[in-house]
Amino acid sequence: MGRVWLRWLLLAAFVVAIGFTFVSLGNWQLDRLDQRRDRNANVVAHEQAAVLPFEQAFDHPITETDQWQRVQVTGTFLADRQLQVRYRSLGDQTGWELVTPLQTASGQTVLVDRGFIVRPAAEDFPRVFPAPPSGEVTVVGYVRRNEQGKPNATTPTENTVRLINSDAIAPWLGRPLVNGYISALTVDPPQSEGLAPITPPALDEGPHLSYALQWFSFAAIAGFGLVVLIRNDVRDRKRAAARAAKEASAGRRSDADPRDGQRVDADPHNGRPAGDVVAAGEASDAGSPERERDDARVASLEEDPARPRTH
Q1: Which of 17, 27, 99, 106 can pair with 83 through a Cys bridge, CB separation 3.0 to 4.6 Å?
Q2: Strand pairing of 181-188 and 136-144?
Q3: Partners of 153 in beta bridges
Q4: DSSP string for residues in 237-249
Q5: What digits encode the pLDDT tens for the residues 106-143?
Q6: Nearest to 182 by CA among 88, 280, 45, 54
């Protein structure tokens, strides 16, 4: 029985570990859902807010709550220091984003994501990117926080980069940059065609709630399965024990000697008292007609010893 308990304990520990993992994943999805709802509320709030001047929007490190706040800035693009951001998508299309530093009228420099360029089907990387407007421009766009990743993704290489991070790009540029960057909505004077602005994400909650319910249901199934397995194991063991006991009892009956003696009633002719044990064959003949005639003949001879005996 000790092995059975050990097996049940190991199985229970495994199921508890699996169940804990499933519940943790479900809670993680609920946390993602809360983040999505907070982001949606933040986007809606900033859409209804007034456009902020650059000096007010970028006077502190940019955080998640600052994202998608509209901002306006005036300055001059540094056209010779453009960066192509690879591995981007917009909707169901893949391509690149074009980032150009903008020196503001106040002397600060900020990165501006000028827009998305669709990747042609037969072209791995464009040979020429659209140049920014020359001279002083006014940009209206969204405040964006720095993207986080490994150094090889945030550090520019041959005018290309995978993530937009002003702290990592500043050494390559050779001048300080304000924290965060701007996703351009409009540029005045207008820039070249073919650049699509980066818009806020869709205001939906995504699949996080359904995923969380799935993980929680997996945990419940694991717990229910453990109970069923243990219950079935107990039931099968009880049935096996009852079957073994029944077979053992039948074996003892079949092993009994058919010649074992049995008790008979008192017999005045043979002098056996009641309850005397006789052989099985003898006891079976005790009440037969032949036995009764033999007993009567013996009795008559004993009463008249002079009478000749016949056979």
Answers
A1: 99
A2: antiparallel
A3: none
A4: HHHHHHHHHHHHH
A5: 899 999 999 998 887 666 666 678 889 999 999 999 99
A6: 54
User: 204 to each of 25, 64, 93, 251, how far by Cα in Å?
Assistant: 21, 18, 20, 74
Length of the chain: 311
Of 194, 77, 197, 198, nearest to 126 (Cα)?
194
- Helix residue ranges, H only, the chain: 2-48, 54-57, 151-154, 166-173, 208-254, 280-285, 289-303
**CA 36 from centre of chain:** 21
Which residues have CB under 8 Å from 239's CB, separation 6+? none
pLDDT of 161-208, one tens digit each? Answer: 999 999 999 999 999 999 999 999 999 998 877 789 988 888 888 899
Nearest to 181 by CA among 195, 193, 196, 198: 198
- Tens-place pLDDT, residues 17-28: 999 999 999 999
* Domains within the chain, CATH numbers bracketed: 1-48+215-256 (no CATH), 52-188 (2.40.50), 262-303 (no CATH)
Q: Please calculate the CA angle 28-148-40 and round it to the nearest 5 degrees.
A: 55
